[in-house]
Amino acid sequence: MEDLKKNDLIDLEITDISNDGNGVGHYNGIAVFVPAVAVGDVIECRIVKVRSSFCYGRTEKLKHPSQDRVESDCPVSKHCGGCSFRHISYEAECRAKDKFIRDSFDRIGKLSPEYMEFCGCKDTDLYRNKAQYPVADDNGKAVCGFYAKRSHRVVEYTRCRLQPVIFSEIVEFIMGYVNDRHIPAYNEISLTGLLRHIYLRRGAYSGEIMVCLVVTDLKKASVFDKLAILLKEKFSDIRTVVLNENPKNTNVILGSRMKAIVGDGTINDTMCGNNISISPLSFYQVNTHQAELLYKKAGEFAQLSHDSTLLDLYCGTGTIGLSMARQVKKLIGVEVIQAAIDNAKANAKANDITNTEFICGDAGKIAQVLYERGERPDVIIADPARKGCDRASLEYMAKMSPDRIVMISCNHTTAARDCAILAELGYTCDKVMGFDLFPRTSHVETVVLLSRK
């Protein structure tokens, strides 16, 4: 068998799509990953990188297009790292995401759940309630947009089809102010400059907008005081303008220090009929309407009663638990970010929900505390970050012996891994359902029902 070498040209049929959105073909038994292709494409592929057991390639010529292929409706989709699927139909995207989930639970988890019908999204554009725009220095000029694929090079573009149109207008107004006043943008190489990110949030129901400017030094950020006033005058939906300080050389966008210069640093919205207060550090699903469908299904899986105790791990601002609080005797929420716990408590109070306890701390450590104080929830809901749950959290979840565990995850691979561990600890993975909260990207949400054996 002839080994592939860099710059080789080969004919390649694309037979699958990987979790990160790359197409997959095979040549003499070697997997070749190619971006921006569709299942069914036949391409002339140039090999650009060779690894021991696979290769990366790029399309030199599209010889036979797939029936799934469509023209991209975004001028920067080939360069921007946001969307992975603008070149295929949305129906094909949903099929691919459903397969991602099934493959993870079959292959990684070695589980055999019932796979429920995938829930696609009604709105594939303008659905996001949150956007984070990196700002960079380009020869003395501040530019703003989105990171290119697998890099921190900023693709200068503000009119993303996933964001509300008003976000583009706000960002362009801010960048005009910044460049008119020669406010220095952050330079990742020299670690100099002031403005790092523009971070926007908008209530899907309320329309209230939060503007958060991430800066390297709050002491130098008074240059934005006038901007905050101008923003509020021009955009009536802006409720608050916040400064966030992040002086560290890190990929993490937000730091821990905040200063509100207009409003109180929060916006309000509605989720599952509850009034919700949101701060910059609070986790809040980026697709409100689709998240409501997801939470409704999670509630159906939970099978709650008025005698139930519900434990909501990784609860964020409390949106999931509070959507079910009126169905249970007691709700306990656990979250590691204090600002989110403060929001959760305020959200419970604002909605006259009194059967709650919200605790700030690491999920695994608090799960142990709850176990040792004798808490035995009937149902546990866990919605961890992409890295999933740690072993301690899973073990104490199982020790508390709930009848059901409902897991919500934005990473099906770690969800499958964690469900496999819970299977070892005495739980059966009964049902799995995919929800597309992130159309045109490679991300997908999963909800899982596990029951005690």
Automatic annotation (TrEMBL):
Organism expressing this protein natively: Ruminococcus albus (strain ATCC 27210 / DSM 20455 / JCM 14654 / NCDO 2250 / 7)
Active site: 410 (nucleophile)
Protein keywords: Methyltransferase, S-adenosyl-L-methionine, Transferase
Protein name: RNA methyltransferase, TrmA family
Record GO biological process: rRNA base methylation
Top-rank taxon, per record: Bacteria
Keyword set includes Transferase: yes
Recorded family membership: Belongs to the class I-like SAM-binding methyltransferase superfamily. RNA M5U methyltransferase family.
Domain TRAM stretches: 3-61
Binding site for S-adenosyl-L-methionine: 285, 314, 335, 383
SUPFAM superfamilies recorded: Nucleic acid-binding proteins (SSF50249), S-adenosyl-L-methionine-dependent methyltransferases (SSF53335)
Record Pfam families: TRAM (PF01938), tRNA_U5-meth_tr (PF05958)
A GO term, aspect molecular function: rRNA (uridine-C5-)-methyltransferase activity
Gene3D superfamilies for this protein: 2.40.50.1070, Nucleic acid-binding proteins, Vaccinia Virus protein VP39
